[in-house]
């Protein structure tokens, strides 16, 4: 970011939650109760690939969706349920509410935030935008409703490249926030003129380039899959760089037998389901310079469990509410993204493309 340095609040990363373990019988029983409650409440699960495998399986079994953040946003707009139960992090619930104000949107834990969202306070981001008012403001979906309301475009990792390319072709200068790694990657690929907000994902930032080189030497035939929130020296080693959907697609479509995966380990559930004969290896978060806090498991995504999902269906609490003036502004750049996705045929489960 090339204005005065910011004194951003230090992000407190929570401990990865430990849920009491359930026997297979208890899991079946709680899943059956949740399914009944979903039906009774005309509710549907909208889950992210990083959530617990049991939650992803339940979302699939009950007719909900398991997806990347772009498809999660789209799914809520086309499904007829009165209640969207968003299993993921807070910005995903907020995006659902912004797009579907008439629906009830609840989450197992409203404290499930995201380091990108927390590291981009709306007042400071607004001041940054005001200081560069000749720029088109493009924000990553991992932001608060207030930050989205200040933007011209919202993007997810599945659609950032084509949208920024489209804007750059029109000669627009871009103010990008908050993920500096994704922003730099988009800048390198598109050549767009971009000012960056200095945010990062505490999970992806921990992948280590030197240790990754070592693992690649041990598995020379493995394809390296990297989410673009990772540091540049990790992205440089990738065979495929993309959204969670794009990385899952790569495992089933590439001929390689082994894959080194640099993103949250929750994604392994879907990768294994799509390609059971492939070998998946976690990219290293340890090695030179390692201070692994989250170790490739997002602690906020980990706040979703079968137990608190059942609790929220019982209590009816944890509902997302958004001030109408903010919602009415935030919906414009989100709809812009979804309209662009529809025009370009991007975002239908199998078309992640970052
Ligand atoms: P995707 O949009 O690729 O699912 O990413 C969301 C996210 O939070 C990655 O850390
Ligand atoms: Fe946010 Fe990173 Fe967690 Fe994704 S993995 S929700 S970007 S903290």
UniProtKB/TrEMBL annotation:
Any one GO biological process: 'de novo' NAD+ biosynthetic process from L-aspartate
UniProt keyword annotation of Transcription present: no
Pfam families recorded: NadA
Listed NCBIfam families: nadA, PRK09375.1-1, PRK09375.1-2
Regions that span the bilayer: none
Gene: nadA
Protein name: Quinolinate synthase
EC numbers, comma separated: 2.5.1.72
Matches recorded under InterPro entries: NadA, NadA_sf
Keyword Hydrolase tagged: no
Associated pathway: Cofactor biosynthesis; NAD(+) biosynthesis; quinolinate from iminoaspartate: step 1/1
Keywords, alphabetical: 4Fe-4S, Cytoplasm, Iron, Iron-sulfur, Metal-binding, Pyridine nucleotide biosynthesis, Transferase
Gene Ontology CC annotations of this record: cytosol
Known cofactor(s): [4Fe-4S] cluster
Top-tier EC class: transferase
GO molecular function, one term: quinolinate synthetase A activity
């Amino acid at each position: 970011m090339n204005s005065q340095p910011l004194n951003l609040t230090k992000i407190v990363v929570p401990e990865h939650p430990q849920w009491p373990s359930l026997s297979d019988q208890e899991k079946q029983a709680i899943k059956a109760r949740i399914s009944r409650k979903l039906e009774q409440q005309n509710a549907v699960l909208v889950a992210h690939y990083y959530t617990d495998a049991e939650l992803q399986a339940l979302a699939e079994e009950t007719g909900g969706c398991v997806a990347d953040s772009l498809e999660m946003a789209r799914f809520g707009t086309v499904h007829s349920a009165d209640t969207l139960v968003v299993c993921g992090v807070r910005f995903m619930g907020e995006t659902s509410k912004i797009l579907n104000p008439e629906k009830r949107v609840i989450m197992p834990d409203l404290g499930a935030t995201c380091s990108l969202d927390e590291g981009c306070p709306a007042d400071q981001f607004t001041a940054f935008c005001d200081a560069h008012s000749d720029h088109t403001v493009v924000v990553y979906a991992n932001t608060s409703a207030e930050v989205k309301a200040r933007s011209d475009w919202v993007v997810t990792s599945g659609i950032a490249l084509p949208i920024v390319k489209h804007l750059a072709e029109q000669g627009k200068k871009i103010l990008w926030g908050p993920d500096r790694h994704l922003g730099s990657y988009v800048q390198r690929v598109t050549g767009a003129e971009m000012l960056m907000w200095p945010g990062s994902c505490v999970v992806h930032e921990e992948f280590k380039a030197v240790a990754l080189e070592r693992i690649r030497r041990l598995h020379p035939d493995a394809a390296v899959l990297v989410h673009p929130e990772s540091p540049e020296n990790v992205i440089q080693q990738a065979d495929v760089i993309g959204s969670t959907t794009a990385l899952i697609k790569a495992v089933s479509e590439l001929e390689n037998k082994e894959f080194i995966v640099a993103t949250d380990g929750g994604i392994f559930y879907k990768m294994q389901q799509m390609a059971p004969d492939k070998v998946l290896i976690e990219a290293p978060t340890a090695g030179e310079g390692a201070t692994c806090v989250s170790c490739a498991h997002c602690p906020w995504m980990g706040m979703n469990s079968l137990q608190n999902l059942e609790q929220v269906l019982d209590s009816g609490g944890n509902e997302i509410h958004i001030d109408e003036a903010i919602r009415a502004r935030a919906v414009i750049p989100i709809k812009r993204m979804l309209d662009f996705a529809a025009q370009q045929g991007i975002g239908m489960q199998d078309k992640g493309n970052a």
